[in-house]
Design goal:
Elements: H1 9-15, H2 33-38, H3 54-66, H4 71-80, H5 84-91, E1 95-99, E2 102-112, E3 117-118, E4 144-147, E5 156-160, H6 163-180, H7 184-190, E6 196-205, E7 212-219, H8 221-231, H9 235-244, H10 246-257, H11 266-279, E8 280-291, H12 298-310, H13 319-336, H14 342-348, H15 354-359, H16 366-377, H17 383-392, H18 401-412, H19 414-421, H20 428-443, H21 448-451, H22 461-477, H23 487-502, H24 521-528, H25 532-546, E9 562-565, E10 571-573, E11 578-579, H26 584-591, H27 609-636, H28 645-649, H29 655-680
Parallel strand pairs: 3-7, 5-6, 6-8
Antiparallel strand pairs: 1-2, 2-8, 4-5, 6-7, 9-10, 9-11
Length: 684
Amino acid sequence: MPDQDDAEYEQTAENAMEPDAVEDELDTTEDTEHDSAAIWSRFGESSLPMLPKMIAVNRAATAGVDAGLPREFATALAHAAVDPSELRALLRRPTRVNIAGGVIEAIDLDLYVPGLVPLPTNNRTMEKRVYPAAGAEGYAGPLTGPRSDPDETTSLWIEGEGVSHVRDETERAREFILANNNLRESIAARGIAMPVNVVYFELRHRDGEPSMPLLGTADGSSRVTNAHQVLGLTDPQTHYHFPSNRHDYRRFIGSISEVDPDVLRPAARRRLIRQRNALITPARVFLRFTPTREGYDYARAVNAFVGMLHVDPPRPWSQTGKLEAMAEAVLDVLRGADVLDDPVHDYLAGLLTPGQAKTEGLPVERDEQAAFVLATLLREHHRELVERGIRDVTAKKSVSASRRTDVIAELALRPTRSIATMLDTNDPERQRAERMRASYLRCARLARYGMVPWKVSRRSPEKLLEAALEELRTVVEVPQAGPESWVNRVELAALAQYHLTAWGGLQREAMGSTDTDKRGPHQILEAMLRDEHGLRLLAQAVIDGRTGAHPRRVTEEGGFQRGTRDEYGAWHEDPAGHPMPIEDGWLRYEAYPTGTTLPRPVTPPNESPRMKATRLKNRLARLIEQIDLDIDELASVEEPHGGSLLDKEGWAKPSELLNHLMNVHSQIGYWARVAERRTSRPIG
């Protein structure tokens, strides 16, 4: 069934499956017996379950209330249940599921897909959200939530400005999922095979419109979105009309479940079979959450549960989506621990407009905004809480330093990514925003961001440079000075890295076994902080970047370094020329060279077997970590029109490479077991 306008859909739902229905313009090929038998589906040619009678639905709703569910939850669940009598029995014996910070009571049963909605805050779509911090006109930002009460509860809530805001955000999420995770043909042919995880939530509106009681898929939003597409359902029906007009909801289901395919013409019959397959899904419904650990509520527990399914394999989100989900969990932990008040939490989350941020006394310059996130969340005394948030949504027992900084840096770029999302793919600003991500994340690994008690002071670049230069002179006189002697220089670095990475002045380290400089951009930053020339370059990067210009080189005295560009694009110094741009190659090989670089470490003289083993293990660890970083970046490569390039094209014939990786995994695993056996032997 094609999508209908709001005014048409009620009539269409009633007449969609009549015997004389118009043939589907998308596919007019005739069905054959062979075609029908060749494709497995949950129901195939057999009869669908009959639409339950209202008396059975009402009895199930009453049973839900008796089991302690809010009446709105019990009613929505009773109408969604394919078999209300089964629902009544399951409510008496729910399954207890251990989850992060508590226990969830759940039941497993079949539900009607029109009675479900994708959770409108689905983390899979996070990389394409537009946050208020971007300052974009006409965008209200993402919906708030999911949130919940702190104690035992059955309900979540999600809030928007009004109905139009909710519809805009749900449509953006729907378009993103259909473009990037298209399961339509699979669901039309076979149905939804694996259970979706369903929660009850209230969809609230700040403008006073009544709340909508909904069943949403905390996990399974892609499947339900694609099933809605097969059924021809759109946002106004699922989120607003069906929950408030159960007669039309039941009529829609009946138009699919109560029609005999054999009385239809071939194309209409084919369409009906596709819709029959998409009509019902197995589901696990979360009934109630009981916290068992301090600081955990239902919303945080659900986010942790979903993150465990998607942040790590087997069903990952995109790299940006994974880091965004971890960042959200980190902010929840910090707010739960009373480290962040509501304005600062919302500012870090990108939920304050520039005007609101200014009212709260918070930075509004894009570079300061990003630096504020780094200054707040990279502090060493927040490390335990940050790592707890990341572990909540991953299967990892520990969190690496690079994973921690990547999560925080991704959050710092949220406003920049938001504004880029709205621009054309060929817009230079969007291209800079996309290009800077990998380098910016690497720059955030500068160790001093976590060691030094710095903050965003909102001084002008000139004032900040003056303080940084004085700081440098003091350190030269007092070499044993502590971390406090770096506060101005580190702040300057945090502001400058935003512009240098955007314009390519700092780029991620080169890959491969060539003789090129292998230093990460954070190491170049560290070198720049140690001399006057570097500090002047950083300050100039901020000055130029804020005007939308490529950062320019300056000399140690502060004047512009001028030159001319040759026919090959290279710059050559010329006092009569133009100010030369700061380029990554210039910083690496001229301004801050390392000297001789080698593709691999030199074997030390008189190296013992133990020394050699240690050296090789360390080198392997670096290589494996680099492989992990490259895989992350490869996963984030996008096509010109959006979406992961590798998710669409795949990686042809990597069997030999995978064999090498499996051999390495097997050998290292064997050595790990040897070490475990050795350490477990009794002494003496």
